[in-house]
Amino acid sequence: MPDKVPMTPRGQQRLKEELKRLKEIERPAVIKAIEEARGHGDLSENAEYDAAKERQSFIEGRIRDIESKLALANVIDPAKLTGDKVVFGATVTISDSESGEEQTYMIVGEDEADIKNGRISITAPVARALIGREVGDLVKVKTPKGIREMEVARVRFEEA
């Protein structure tokens, strides 16, 4: 049995919206494109047909992927969590032990990660290093600049 897929309510909603768009807009459009390309004759040298079939394959694969994730979803609402430990859904501020520079990340599901907006995947090395830690704990984090020692400065729970 595959593992549950952790996600926030926001992440679940986004997947549902993408699934609806794929099924109701993208799939019918690609089927129409395939029919039109077939009408152009010889399929062996028909680039439009090949491109449409490739797009159809991508869409069907993504639909299966999203349906699987939604079926295995373990929806966790960070706004309902409390405590001092870093867990999925936590917004964590870490402070570089050397420079004092602070960074804040929310730990979210894989499909929700957006590093530019401070949302890191539960599977990211930084998130894995932080899980289970508390304010004041020192954590070694692998960064592009090498291994850095960070201190967990704050842990809070807010809406995703």
| Approximate strand percentage | 15-25%
Q: How much is the radius of gyration in Å?
A: 21 Å
Distance between the termini: 28 Å
The SSE string, one letter per element, is EHHEEEEHEE
The main sheet orders its strands as 5-4-3-7-6
Structural class: alpha/beta
Mean pLDDT: 91
Q: Determine the CATH superfamily of the largest domain.
A: Transcription elongation factor, GreA/GreB, C-terminal domain
Q: How many domain modules? A: 2
Helical percentage: 25-40%
Give the count of helical stretches: 3
Number of beta strands: 7
CATH class division of the largest domain:
Alpha Beta
List the main descriptive attributes of the protein structure presented here.
160 residues; alpha/beta; Helix Hairpins; Chitinase A, domain 3; two-stranded parallel sheet; 3 helices
